[in-house]
Write a structure and sequence with these properties.
By secondary structure, this protein is an alpha+beta fold. The protein has a single domain (35-169), classed as L-fuculose-1-phosphate Aldolase. The chain is 44% helix and 13% strand. α1 crosses α3 and α4 (113-134) packs across α6 (157-169).
Length: 171
């Protein structure tokens, strides 16, 4: 817990003793651009990052993976450690729920931490399933109608909480 800090949107330390993270601009610029977002997660997941390394587009092959929508890629493997890079990332995210960082990682956003976490878990599960299916052939991708149905049925705070609880129980 000694490495947890509170900073303002300019990166100035407000609470804690550790050095603020270099990539705080990921968070600050998304919060500036998206008043609907209350949680930003920056992750370095294996499978979705692998897709960006090969130029393979994230495709909704798993019901919960549909919830992320069309995921753009920030086409730079460099660290997001400047305001300009943070603004570029926030612009690529737009009004979406996730953005992939080429050969680097992913960012998910949500109305709260549980939602952002669940979306991150769904992102990675979908990417893993997509990768594994590609070893056999061309994966089935949910149709627009199927995606609409998934969004209507699966966008639920209680389902996000179940995902959170599932992973928490594994700790």
């Amino acid at each position: 817990m000694d490495d947890i800090v509170t900073i303002d949107l300019q990166g100035a330390l407000l609470d804690g003793a550790a050095r603020p993270p270099l990539e705080f601009h990921i968070h600050s610029e998304i919060y500036r651009a998206r008043p609907d977002v209350n949680a930003v997660l920056h992750l370095h997941p294996q499978w979705s990052t692998l897709l960006t390394m090969t130029g393979v587009k994230y495709r909704p092959v798993y019901a919960q993976g549909v919830l992320l929508g069309d995921i753009p890629v920030l086409d730079s493997p460099l660290s997001v450690n400047t305001t300009v890079m943070g603004e570029k990332l926030a612009s690529r995210l737009g009004d979406g729920r996730a953005v992939l960082l080429k050969s680097h990682g992913a960012v998910t956003v949500g109305s709260d931490l549980v939602e952002a976490f669940a979306l991150a878990a769904y992102l990675e599960e979908n990417a893993h399933r997509q990768y594994m299916a590609m070893q056999i052939g061309d994966p089935y991708v949910f149709s627009e109608d199927e995606q609409k149905t998934c969004r209507e049925n699966l966008w639920s705070a209680s389902l996000f909480r179940k995902t959170w609880d599932h992973y928490r129980a594994k700790l």
